[in-house]
Amino acid sequence: MAAGEHAVVEFAYDAVFYFDDLPNNQTHPQKQKDSKDVITTKPQWYRTAIAPVPFREEVFWNVMERWILEAPAIIPPVLKVEVIQDDVATGSGNESVTTTAAPESPVAQDRMRLLLDDQVPYRTIRRKLLPKRVAKDPIMEEQLYYCRSQQQCLGDDNNSDMKKTASSHAIFAPIIKQNIAADLDNELKTLVSTLPFYYPKIRGFRYGYQPDPEDAPEDKEDEHDCDQCEDMKNNQDQAPDANGRCEADVCVEPNQETGKQITQSGRSGWITLDLFLAGDEGRFTDKMQYAFRELFKKLFKWGINTTKGFTKSRVEHDVLVPKELYQKTYARLKEKHAQKWVQSWAEKTDAQKFVFEDIAIASWLVALWELERAKDSKVSDNQQEKKQTFMDLGCGNGLLTHILNVEGHKGTGIDIASRKIWDIYGDETQLQVKTIIPNETFPKGAPDGKYKAYQEYICSVIDTCGYVLQKENLRIPSTKNVALVGMFLKRKRGREDEEGYQSRVDQLVMRSGVFVPRISDKDKQMIQKTKLAAKMAKEAK
């Protein structure tokens, strides 16, 4: 890079967590606003995490909006979200409190006041979280509140420019439905027994945003937001550290070797995480702490990516198979096959990876074929029930072939060598050891990688054979997740066009060269053992 040019340094994630300071029956809580007792029966908000960020408040709300509507992206056990109610208005919201008390009771009203932290929500959302494992996890409802505190003058006159920084919060609270009187002593037990495993067993939590304008000193009386922000700000408003980080609004420093200017994004505010606790929750498990840490880090990353314009996946999913149908099929096949094959996996490979990956691929194929049969209205009902057949070339462990066979699709898996697990599947699974001699060699040279060259070649074969090419990126835990489909023939234009297709296919076959199949892993091991034995015999002489 030429001298004088600028380089932008990414804003570093630098969060501080306070899990050890949260109230429970063994430790003391940190000092909280309006708190008189160490342990109180009334829940209060406790600061759990804080981190500086380089983005503005509107970015924070943009991320919150996506999190609310796209819950499966951050909560994997959730299948989808149903928004029951969405009001952009003020109101008490007493109909949805996180308590077993009756909605209009004084206890419920007091709880709502504490939950909202004396703020008036400008938007309330009630949503339903539908689980993937319908048989195991309950459906739950959740109430969300968008709140923003007002700026307050701290000076003696109305013209004072000393203002408390306005903060914003997105509050999440589980809804517990019971038509009985309040029983606060058993409230936590009700939460534990009612909420699904993935949801924290607490009365509420909230994510917040605290702006950082230069001309607005923090309110020293607000120990939730301002003391911790001030401490972090004092630590960060220093010279760049060893990693070149500088937390001023804009940090520019010359590189002594290249002379280029290094510019880092400045801090615009803080994101926060607070938990609504009464002190009876006990210590947070390592798993729950990890979950909150990861979610907080995701909030930071999603905010950064939003400022860069990365709001959607770079690849297209659900082009051929609707997401809901795929997820429904995946849940069914996972319930049917996952536990059995993870526990009885006979290969040395990672069962967690390969079992779930093959279940995902099988789910997509089963759903795709189901749609194909449903669209074919020209055939009789009996013919529609006849399921598609397949050939799985390079089937490896054979699990994909096994699942498709079990689902009623006749087909065969072929590989150059058998696997130990093949013997476990049974006679219904058709697996063969065979070497397929292809009709074409791959072009030499692949600047974009062998996998990309392979995709392009398959695309050309599909096109040459006269099929409409369709492409989709599968939702599987693998980098090789591209599905290339040739399911429908292109519209023909008479005999001349048909002969043209046949001519191109013939040329494709004629261009085939000598194919040398790869050596199987078993043969490789035998060759290595033979070489090692010969070497040892030679050294012994």
Question: How would you characterize the overall build of this protein?
Answer:
It catalyses: uridine(44) in tRNA(Ser) + S-adenosyl-L-methionine = 2'-O-methyluridine(44) in tRNA(Ser) + S-adenosyl-L-homocysteine + H(+). Its EC number is 2.1.1.211. This protein is of the alpha+beta class and 541 residues long. The chain has two domains: 297 residues, no CATH class; 200 residues, no CATH class. The chain is built from 13 helices and 16 strands. The chain has an eight-stranded antiparallel β-sheet with strand order 2-3-11-8-7-6-5-4, with helices on both faces. A three-stranded mixed β-sheet has the order 1-10-9, with no helix packed on it. A three-stranded parallel β-sheet has the order 12-13-14, with helices on one face. It is elongated. About 14% of the residues have low confidence.
